[in-house]
């Protein structure tokens, strides 16, 4: 019986050590999972914020392309005014090339 008792103690010690080790690994993995969950939440929140910023910037960009907005900026920020008639210089009329056969050609390729 003493032989069984001597074999029991190392096996029991090993079993306890293995159980404790498995529990510690489980806790470490659980902690890492929670940490990654928080990081994912922050990343999704940042993504949502950036999408909203993008939407606002697209609306702002579209507003800058309207002629009314360009005129407002030209008048207020740049101090521009419509030109007076004495400042308008007409361009000389550029002669247009004659039509060949009723159709103007543009690139040297004729009808096929």
Q: Average pLDDT, to the nearest integer?
A: 85
* Structural class based on helices, strands and sheet pairing: mainly alpha
Order of helices and strands: HH
- Please state roughly what percent of the residues sit in beta strands, choosing from under 5%, 5-15%, 15-25%, 25-35%, 35-45% or over 45%: under 5%
Largest sheet: none
Low-confidence stretches: none
Describe this structure in words.
The protein has 112 residues and is mostly helical. It has a domain of 61 residues. The chain has two helices and no strands.
Record keyword descriptors for this entry:
mainly alpha; 112 residues; single chain; 2 helices; rod-shaped
Summarize the structure.
By secondary structure, this protein is mainly α. It contains 2 helices and no strands.
Secondary-structure map with pairings?
Elements: H1 2-64, H2 67-76
């Amino acid at each position: 019986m003493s032989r069984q008792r001597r074999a029991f103690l190392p096996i029991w010690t090993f079993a306890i050590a293995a159980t404790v080790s498995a529990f510690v690994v489980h806790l470490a993995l659980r902690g890492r999972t929670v940490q990654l969950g928080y990081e994912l939440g922050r990343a999704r929140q940042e993504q949502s914020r950036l999408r909203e910023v993008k939407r606002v910037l697209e609306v702002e960009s579209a507003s800058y392309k309207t002629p009314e907005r360009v005129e407002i900026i030209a008048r207020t920020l740049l101090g521009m005014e419509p030109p007076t008639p004495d400042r308008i210089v007409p361009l000389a009329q550029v002669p247009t090339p004659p039509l060949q056969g009723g159709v103007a050609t543009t690139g040297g390729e004729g009808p096929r």
